[in-house]
Each structure stands twice: as structure tokens, then as C-alpha cells.
Design goal:
four-stranded mixed sheet, four-stranded antiparallel sheet
Length: 154
């Protein structure tokens, strides 16, 4: 019986594969995202102009990618990669959805870990702090070992 369970566990690990996920933590407005995001996609644009979009999963600390995602990330034809997701919040009696699109480099997927910090300007505090840096409704920063930080407005 133990042999069968060990065998099934080993087969499950082999099918899912090692190293298929990216170590990534996502924060929105200084709050760790646990279950508030939906519709997470990696959008790829190739050098010939073709575009594709792959659904990805997210658990705190892990961006779940499939082997075909890794093929596209590592492909020489891939010119641009954008992570998009919807962030769901409940304020008062209302349900609000923020749509975010973060451009990523191929090198980001090779890092040991990433911390994605998104500041949604629907909250005044973040609009005052970082609003002068962009024309968008949000600003995002990727933190990684030996990476930079976002500078506040004066």
C-alpha cells in the first residue's frame, strides 16, 4: 500500500514537473493578495506582431505557469510580455474591480523571487504619493534581489 501511494505521488510530481512556477508575491495597496485577483493572464506579443494570451494561476508566493508559457517566455520570437489581472475589492456595499497590466522582461522570469507591488490610484493616499510618476490609474514596481525602488512624489 505504501509503495502504491509513493508511486502515485511520484507520478503526480513528474506530471506537474519541477520549476514550472515563478516565485512571486503580489501586493496591491500595501496588502498581500490572497484571493482577490481573478482573470490572471500572460499576454505575449511576438516580433511578427501576433499576440496570444495564456491563463495563469496565482497562490500567494507563486505564479503558476504551464510548460507552454515557459516556451513562449524563452522564445526568441517573443518581444513583449504583460501580466494582466483583475483586482476585486469590496468597499461599503459596492464591489469594485481594478484592471492592471504590468509589463515584464524575460529576465524577470529567471530571478529567484519577485515582489510585485501595485498602487491603485482609486485610493487617494497612493494617488498623492505616486500620481506624478504616471498618467495611468495605477503604478507598479517589481522588487527583486539588487533591484531598485519606486521614488515618491515630493
Amino acid at each position: 500500500m505504501k509503495f502504491k501511494l509513493t508511486f502515485l505521488l511520484l507520478i503526480g510530481i513528474i506530471i506537474n514537473g519541477f520549476g514550472q512556477n515563478l516565485n512571486m508575491v503580489i501586493e496591491v495597496n500595501e496588502r498581500l493578495v490572497t484571493s482577490e485577483i481573478s482573470g490572471a493572464y500572460l499576454n505575449f506579443e511576438n516580433t511578427d506582431g501576433t499576440k496570444s494570451r495564456n491563463l495563469v494561476g496565482y497562490h500567494p508566493g507563486e505564479l503558476i505557469l504551464k510548460p507552454e508559457d515557459w516556451k513562449k517566455i524563452n522564445s526568441d520570437l517573443t518581444k513583449e510580455i504583460t501580466l494582466t489581472f483583475d483586482y476585486n475589492t469590496f468597499k461599503g456595499n459596492g464591489h469594485q474591480i481594478g484592471n492592471f497590466g504590468i509589463e515584464m522582461n524575460k529576465e524577470d522570469f529567471e530571478r529567484r523571487y519577485l515582489i510585485l507591488r501595485v498602487y491603485d490610484f482609486r485610493e487617494r493616499k497612493f494617488r498623492k504619493r505616486y500620481g506624478c510618476l504616471t498618467d495611468k490609474d495605477f503604478i507598479a514596481e517589481l522588487n527583486f534581489p539588487q533591484g531598485g525602488i519606486l521614488v515618491r512624489c515630493k
